[in-house]
Known about the structure:
Blueprint: E1 3-7, E2 16-19, E3 31-36, E4 39-49, E5 64-65, H1 74-87, H2 91-98, H3 101-104, E6 117-120, H4 122-129, H5 136-147, E7 151-152, H6 153-157, H7 165-170, E8 174-176, H8 194-205, E9 211-217, H9 223-236, E10 240-244, H10 251-261, E11 267-270, H11 276-287, E12 293-296, E13 308-314, H12 331-342, E14 345-350, H13 355-363, E15 367-371, E16 382-387, H14 399-411, E17 414-418, E18 427-429, E19 447-449, E20 454-456, E21 463-465, E22 479-481, H15 485-495, E23 501-504, H16 512-523, E24 529-532, E25 545-550, H17 564-576, E26 587-592, H18 598-604, H19 608-622, E27 629-637, H20 640-657, E28 663-664, E29 668-675, E30 678-687, H21 690-705, E31 714-719
Parallel strand pairs: 9-14, 9-15, 10-12, 10-13, 11-12, 13-14, 16-26, 17-24, 17-25, 23-24, 25-26
Antiparallel strand pairs: 1-2, 1-4, 3-4, 3-5, 6-7, 6-8, 18-22, 19-20, 20-21, 27-30, 27-31, 28-30, 29-30
Helix pairs in contact: 1-2, 4-5, 8-9, 20-21
Bound molecules: adenosine-5'-triphosphate (ATP) and zinc ion.
The site of adenosine-5'-triphosphate has 20 residues, from helix 9.
Domain Helicase ATP-binding: 204-371
GO molecular function, one term: hydrolase activity
Binding site for Zn(2+) 2: 439, 442, 457, 460
Amino acid sequence: MPYVRVALPVPIPQVFDYIAEDAGETDIGRCVRVPFGRGEKSGLIVALSAAAEVDAARLKPVLHIQREVPPLPQDWLGLVDFVARYYHAPLGEVVALALPPGLRRADGVSGEDEDPLLVVSDAGWSALQAVRRDSKALTLLRELAATGAPMRRSVVRELPQGAAVGDALRRGWLAPAPAAGGRERMAAAPALTAEQSAVIGEVSAAPPGFRAWLLQGVTGSGKTEVYLRLAQQVLAGGGQVLMLVPEIALTPQLERRVAQRFPAANVVSLHSALAAGARSRGFVQALTGHADIVLGTRLAVFAPLPRLGLILVDEEHDASYKQQEGVRYSARDVAVWRARQHGVSVVLGSATPSLESWHHARGGRYAPLALNQRAVASAMPAVRCIDTRRLRLDEGLSPALQAAVAARLERGEQSLVFLNRRGYAPVLSCPSCGWISRCPHCSANLVVHLADRRLRCHHCGCDGPIPHACPSCGDQDIRPFGRGTQRIEARLAELFPRARVLRVDRDAARTRAQWESLLATIADGGADILVGTQMMAKGHDFPQLTLVGVIGADASLHAADFRAPERLFQQLMQVGGRAGRGVLPGEVLIQTEYPAHPLYQHLARHDFDAFARMALQERRAAGFPPFTHQAMLRADAPALDDAVEFLRHARRLAEERAPAGLRLYDPVPMRLTRLARRERAQLLVEADHRGPLQTFLADWVALLYRQRTARELRWQIDVDPLDV
Ligand SMILES: Nc1ncnc2c1ncn2[C@@H]1O[C@H](COP(=O)(O)OP(=O)(O)OP(=O)(O)O)[C@@H](O)[C@H]1O
Ligand SMILES: [Zn+2]
């Protein structure tokens, strides 16, 4: 009797055997529903098992095998297996993460192409020839006929008379294109700059096979254009392209841009905000090879791609590539592994690479590529510090910054005031008794949100109304302390009553639709002054934006995390890079009490390399990554003692088997100790080399799974943690 081995999403590092009467080799890689405990679960068949290995009397039969779509191929199973081993996570949990929920539930899934490639049909040509009254559908038809090549329905829709596509289809004037050839055909594209040509030439000239490139291109240098041209070459060779972006917020514009550039290609996007059906469909199209370009956030790194020819990772330094819960994988690192597995190139692009990648590029592991000039603008923005030590600030705004904003208003240009803190004020407090608004569930303050009159915790999300009097002493004079984006927005509106002030943060852009409408408003010149958080820092290109004012950056200068300076530098260089990207020159003003700080000095000179050298020297001296390799064991429980006790026990187990050179630190409470009513502690493990660390972790984590733990205790292992 055939047995199958199933990976199930349970926090146990094992796979489970089931009976499947009719299962064979071709079922490996298929989704399956099985009975589990008192209920049922869905998972993936990862192997067939021989009768000798199983105790058949205790096995149950599978409920349903999903056979409507092809099984996941061997290389994909290799991918999830690698992730499970490297991040020391149960295989079933990795599979659950990698598969779209609809597919994993072994539901019926359609991989049908909802965005067919259309051509002018014979009836369409006759209609064009016949003399008849002009209609929108006819105008559209004429445009398509002039283009002379098939186009995706979604791209047709974007044409001037695109709304008539349904009408044209009903009349039979448009028909699905017979065989989709020429997917690499590009719509009008700008002539490349000399630097872009050189970069593309270098990548194309490389011998086939795996290679990791680090494309370090200053902000506005046209990295996207490089990605598109490289993608074209791969499409022309019949390959598939995987393109990763850090945030869902960045996908709509890019999706449109990619689809318009390659009107005949099937561009599929994959991210967590998609409806289940759409995500499954995109995934299946990737799997069947019908997708030419898969564009998505970190989870798209798991898209099966039988013809994979190139991986692009945009803004490779971005922390959102690393999943911060469950299986803590880094999509960037997994992308590099996949490229190696498939023997293809991966291009990691950024104006501000992660220090790890920058280090690899210096050391020869990655091949460096550079774009040092902006594509359109003639210069980088002028960056200047405003020394605020002896200034009177008006709600945090210096006279110089106000004057600069006023000058932009005068000229009809846009300004951005950047402050990475949402809400009105970070805390509400009572001056007479010292009460402050603490979150009851976290070791954090409740943030004042004046827009909807709530006190809200940014960590656990709990909220309540703003009290009218101090809950502790009854004093009515309670006040918001400090500043967030809402407060700056309010003050700017008072200072510049005729300006249109627009706040762009996660509160203003809760949904994708809100976010898109904000972006459209900015692009159409419907806003004069923007107040934004890091949401505004990434990837955007607004030619009218010429001033970026940075406030409140000093707070990160002295943060405890060893990665804080790197993050601050990246953030400031990125947000500053939004200024002066078009023909108008840009200016960046940074309010600081430390104008002589080397970080700001390097920033003013746009010298990422000098900053990176300095920061890496510090890391080398302190023994931090990339000069060492780390893993973090974290535990949380309702009582801190339980969490710490578990880590102490784990440390003792580790001591007995630690190889020479492995460093075990003491368990300590995490910086944000209490989160959503759970107390958290962590234990850092470090080694000079990855190999011994990995060997040790495999052994140790297996042992940890076998420990009996205090009730309600949870633990996780985080390999290459970002927050230490
Ligand atoms: N060869 C070119 N000719 C004309 N315009 C170009 C060319 N290449 C890029 N551009 C334009 O330059 C601007 C900046 O390009 P892009 O947004 O790709 O920069 P980037 O390198 O990704 O910058 P950032 O890192 O700041 O996001 C865009 O408006 C883009 O359309
Ligand atoms: Zn909270």
